[in-house]
Input
Amino acid sequence: MSKQQTLIAHLQSQLGDKLANHYVSFGELTLEVNPGHIEAVLKFLRDDSDCAFTQLIDLCGADYPERPLRFDVVYHLLSMTQNQRVRVKLQAGEETQVPSATGLFDVADWFEREAFDMYGILFSGHPDLRRLLTDYGFEGHPLRKDFPLSGHVEVRYDDDAKKVIQEPVSLVQEFRDFDFESPWEGARAANLIPDSLPGDEKASTEGQEG
Output
């Protein structure tokens, strides 16, 4: 039995119905946790000597708007002593209060603030749950699938007003129309640059001289 299989058997025997499912993808174990048990599962993974997942490497969100519980809250844990990684997933809705992991991992503080800012995931018991990457007064959550591609407003410093201002976003062209295969011909085809640029005449002149 491999080290990973031994860990899976140990987790199944110790966590029981706290786990909704488990699977191995790309060589990494993923645990799906039943609602109401995320704190207990994370604490066990951290404190159990056979697990020792003492490092919270990342905490992020994922959005599946077609589901009743649209969000996945994803925790990535590392055990330095066991040289193993595990991914823990919990489903949450827009109104779900996910227990904060800041009491178990200090680093969860800004991770949870980012997940709140980008997805609107709520964490109960967080010491300072406010936006982290967007500006004060920003509307919406940019990483939700239903957030408009062009956003709502843009923030910039206005030199005349000598302050930061917000104004409606104005995009000349949707980014999905860009041709990323050719940085020059693709841009010209999309009418982003003129057919000729200053200096192009040199190339034709040099060719005639040669």
Q: What stands out?
A: DSSP finds five helices and nine strands in the chain. The chain has a mean pLDDT of 86. The first strand starts at residue 19 and ends at 25.
